[in-house]
Amino acid sequence: MTVRIGVIGTGMIGEEHSRRITQTLTDGEIVAVTDVNAEQAQRMADNLGLSAKVYDNGQDLIKADDVDAVLVTSWGPTHEEYVLAAIEAGKYVFCEKPLATTAEGCRNIIDAEIQAGKRMVQVGFMRRYDSGYKMMKDVIDANKLGEPLMIHAAHRNPEVPERYVTPMAIHDTLIHELDTFRWLLDDDYKSAQVIFPRKTRHAHSKVEDPQMVLLETVKGVRIDVEVFVNCQYGYDIQCSVVGEEGIANLPEPQSLQYRQAGKLSSDILQDWKKRFNDAFDVELQAFIDGVANGEIGGPSSWDGYAAAIAGDVCVKAQESGQIESIEMPERPGFYA
Ligand SMILES: NC(=O)c1ccc[n+]([C@@H]2O[C@H](COP(=O)([O-])OP(=O)(O)OC[C@H]3O[C@@H](n4cnc5c(N)ncnc54)[C@H](O)[C@@H]3O)[C@@H](O)[C@H]2O)c1
Ligand SMILES: O[C@H]1[C@H](O)[C@@H](O)[C@H](O)[C@@H](O)[C@H]1O
């Protein structure tokens, strides 16, 4: 079965995902596209040589009879509306992070999905599909490190645009770690604190950069994450899990090592597209296969909600400078 997909939001990642569905993955076809910037939608269809229909708006695309599943890759604040509309139309939906920009928005999606009676939503937390993180998860689950005690991590981007402001270090960037650590540790968060070290001269006036986020989990694991989005030198994701009997480090992405002019060196990647290219492939193929089989898996609305709750508390902690507690509601059996 070919899954007929409609794409809402044809910017950077919308085009990346559409390209991989069209050129790399199997059993999916982009049949419909839309963007608030109509020219942008047409441009993407032309770039990729798609014969997709260009819709005026996301709501009409979702309702189209020939759309089996929806990809939401528009700006974060628009996600909730489109995910709710897809659930209402009975269409499976892949939604890029964040599922919604507030925990309340995620809760609305959860209520709608439970009402629908089956899982309809996969959230774009692609790190769960990254081979390095998967190896770490296997080692932790097999108890090879003993009980995990601490995580040291860093999330570095070379630079961010002017519209990137201080809370986005949480909602836009740290949100990946907030999901990844819950999944790696099979745990939830209990508290958060955010510390601002000396500010880099490369950050513009509306963003505090770098930031250090300190998390504590229910099982007592302590986590420190450096978020540094103007680090200049590259796109660099680091993670080290310290257990009672060993340590697991996230592998560096494969890169040619070369000897030249008296130096031994290798290149550092510059963006998320290349760093998580393979993970995006696996993630979206899983979505397409899930739709074809009538049973989707991967990061759920509950995972999107859990990350949003922790994210909201981290933003509060940015403002208060205090250790703030994180209260997770009980997980409904539906998401067990
Ligand atoms: N998983 C990842 O690593 C990753 C990487 C990049 C972006 N993202 C997420 O993907 C989303 C898009 O990011 P991007 O970098 O592609 O941004 P972008 O600005 O390049 O593209 C977003 C597109 O959405 C369109 N849009 C905005 N509002 C719309 C609406 N109401 N209806 C239809 N289209 C609308 C914009 O015109 C734009 O073309 C964000 O939520 C972002 O957090 C995730
Ligand atoms: O939207 C992007 C994307 O999610 C990247 O994976 C992350 O590293 C960036 O900080 C964020 O701005």
TrEMBL record:
Residues 3-125 form the Gfo/Idh/MocA-like oxidoreductase N-terminal domain. It catalyses: myo-inositol + NAD(+) = scyllo-inosose + NADH + H(+). Coiled coil: none annotated. Residues 137-322 form the Gfo/Idh/MocA-like oxidoreductase C-terminal domain. Keywords: NAD, Oxidoreductase. It comes from the Bacteria. InterPro entries: Gfo-Idh-MocA_inositol_DH, Gfo/Idh/MocA-like_OxRdtase_C, Gfo/Idh/MocA-like_OxRdtase_N, MI/DCI_dehydrogenase, NAD(P)-bd_dom_sf. GO terms for biological process: inositol catabolic process. Its EC number is 1.1.1.18. Homotetramer. HAMAP family: IolG (MF_01671). Belongs to the Gfo/Idh/MocA family. This is Inositol 2-dehydrogenase. It comes from Litchfieldella anticariensis (strain DSM 16096 / CECT 5854 / CIP 108499 / LMG 22089 / FP35) (Halomonas anticariensis). The lineage of its organism: Bacteria, Pseudomonadati, Pseudomonadota, Gammaproteobacteria, Oceanospirillales. The gene is iolG.
